[in-house]
Amino acid sequence: MYKRILFLLCILPFQLLMAQSKLTDFPQGYTPEEVGNRLAYRFMEKYRISDRKGIGYADTFNWSGALKYAAIAKDERLVKLLQNKFDSLFTTKKNILPKKTHVDWNMFGSLCLELYKITKDKRYLDLGISYADTQWELPGNAKAKEKEWDAKGYSWQTRLWIDDMYMITIVQTQAYKVTGDRKYIDRAAKEMVLYLDELQRPNGLFYHAPDVPFYWGRGNGWMAAGMAELLQCLPEDSKYRPRILKGYRKMMKSLKKYQTSDGLWNQLIDQPDCWAETSGSAMFTFAFITGVKQGWLKAKEYGPAARKAWMALVPYINEKNDVREVCVGTNKKNSKQYYYDRPRHTGDYHGQAPYLWCTVALLEK
């Protein structure tokens, strides 16, 4: 018995190391350093504040993705360039700051808080926290439904669209990271449990909304990425953690089943005749990589699946460093054909950003 225990203690770390190695040693052109550098500098080159009339959520998470990559790559020049691009928002371009009146706009605070984390400049903290706080501060002109959500302790911006579970989670989680105030992570976790209970189906996937019974790729990607982000910060003693971890693992199991032979996922995940879509696929890949590295998923099972997905994703980046086959911004609609027919763009920030998340997750120790 003693010899068997000793054997297991010796062999298990080796097996884990072998599985983890699936997420390292990438061939030239596929390393996270190369891909991250390409896409982060592409954002710097392409995104001009002077041309903007507003800042959308896709701009925000691509910007923050580039920042996270720059920080982990220790590219101080890139950090400074991205910071400088932001700073006109305190002065000449202050008028294009997102209003604090919608779930898609409040998530802008996550970018401010990422800048604060890196630079320790209090201007970014104050601005970011204002977006996190107002997501839970009922406005004077609130509608009846918004008042109902607020009375139950949820964000008044709740609408039960799966997109929200990245938009709400990311700003509240970032606020917790920089302040240590438990209220922010508890808000996000309580909200996540609500969405899990309302929208996750028996197969582990999520409807776009209660009245839209389709498993849209990027929508499910928001859930996958949101849970991965939240679980990394959620304290072990949180009463919400077991429920969220259960929902996350259930989803990952289903995603592994629906991963195509090419390594990606389709625009409608469960429809084999639908087209392969890159933004949702990259979000699922991020969730896989994070789960393996955090020990929530079995490395020997999900490590190869994550690697297969990453190797399939990289060739979709063209010579201009733009990602192809990205579904455009998509509202909910109770029509299967609607999702099949969504336009596909190249270089759309919905696709650029999750690739950057993957590079950071691959580089993290």
Gist?
The chain is mainly alpha-helical. It is built from 16 helices and two strands. It has a single domain (about 20-135, about 150-365), classed as Glycosyltransferase, CATH 1.50.10.
Describe the structure.
The structure is a single chain. By secondary structure, the chain is mostly helical. It has 16 helices and 2 strands. It has one domain: Glycosyltransferase (Alpha/alpha barrel). The protein has a two-stranded antiparallel sheet with strand order 1-2. It is globular, with a radius of gyration of 20 Å. The two termini are 34 Å apart. 45% of the residues are buried.
Question: Main β-sheet, in a few words?
Answer: 2 strands, antiparallel
Stretches with pLDDT under 50, minimum 5 residues: none
- CATH architecture, by name, is Alpha/alpha barrel
| CATH class (first level) name | Mainly Alpha
The helix content, as a percent range, equals 55-70%
| SS strand fraction | under 5%
CATH topology: Glycosyltransferase
Q: In whole angstroms, how far apart are the ends?
A: 34 Å
Q: What's the quaternary structure here?
A: single chain
- Helix/strand/pairing class, anyone? mainly alpha
Radius of gyration from CA coordinates: 20 Å
Which word captures the global form? globular
Number of DSSP helices? 16
Mean pLDDT: 95
Summarize the topology.
Blueprint lengths: L1 H19 L11 H15 L10 H16 L3 H12 L15 H4 L2 H11 L2 H13 L9 H8 L12 H16 L2 H18 L17 H17 L7 H18 L19 H17 L4 H15 L12 E2 L8 H5 L3 E2 L3 H15 L2
Helix pairs in contact: 1-14, 2-3, 2-16, 3-4, 3-6, 3-16, 6-7, 6-9, 7-9, 9-10, 9-11, 10-12, 11-12, 11-13, 13-14, 13-16
GO molecular function, one term: unsaturated rhamnogalacturonyl hydrolase activity
Keywords: Glycosidase, Hydrolase, Signal
Protein name: Glycoside hydrolase family 88 protein
